# Entry
Amino acid sequence: MKHSSNGILPGIVLIGAVVLGALFLFGGFDITGLTTAQASTSTVISSPATGAEIKSGESFTVTAVIGCRNSKCNTVRSTISFPAGGLVLKTGSATKTWTSLSPGSSQTVSWLIQANQTGNRQVKVSTTSKNAQASSNLISVIIYVPACSSNADCGPSQYVTSAYCGEGGDVFRDYQSLMCAYPGTFSSSCQSSVTSVKVADCGNNGFVGQPYCLGLSVYQKYLSVGCSSGQCTNSTSDVLLQECLNGCSNGACNPEPALDSCGDSDGGFNTYQQGTVSGNSNGQAYSLTDTCFNGTASLTEYYCVGDQATSITNNCYNVNGSLSYCYNGRCY
Ligand SMILES: [Ca+2]
Ligand SMILES: [Ca+2]
# Structure
């Protein structure tokens, strides 16, 4: 029994050595006995895009997609950092931790970041795992202060010259308008434009008011306007419109005086009909009607002699030569 025992034991040892040698040569275990399959993490910053323009002082979200390759990744941690400074974590922790990621799966993580310094800034996300190879991703963003966010940022729009005489003899000033192009953006800029603005209309030359008499003639005021040293000027003058042969009244020449004339409605010296003599004498119209002296025989009869009126006052007589009476401007 003893001999046979001594013969079997070396055989088992030999077989064991051969098996171990074969495993060592053909893989499956390393020298410490652990698996050699390579697990690794992947890190991709999906937002913002590299080169993104972000306004200084504003907050933005960094989003990264963390993946696991080959084998399961255990105790995964992703940490955000800012190698170039200028960015700060607004809330929460820089490191996000979760237990594990299955092979081929991914996890999205995000951080709220504030931009507090202009310039080209870097965002780095690094991922580690207890049993997998670490990874990281780095992007650059541009933190800027916009040149302007509204027209008011460009200063007041205002007149930039004193008054001057311009087109049409009127008064102008140059007005500068300042405006913000692409307000609030990386491309924003203040732009100005200058326009000539009419600030006073000096009016037009021309007659003003109503014609008036000056001496024996008709005149009217004439307004002459202009511009001098940035101010409206004006002056008036008396302009002769018409010289009058017969004088001037109320801004117009008097008419030619009427010629002397005489007409008689009862045909002449006619005491048995009341008549009226009328016409013009020395430019004045007149009208004279036959008149009784009431309660008597006396009649004033008007009649024409040539182009002049004349009259006779006399008593009325009947056909017998005796006194008659006068009534309603005629004899009976
Ligand atoms: Ca008469
Ligand atoms: Ca008469």
About this structure: The chain has one helix and 26 strands. Residues 1-36 have pLDDT under 50 and may be disordered.
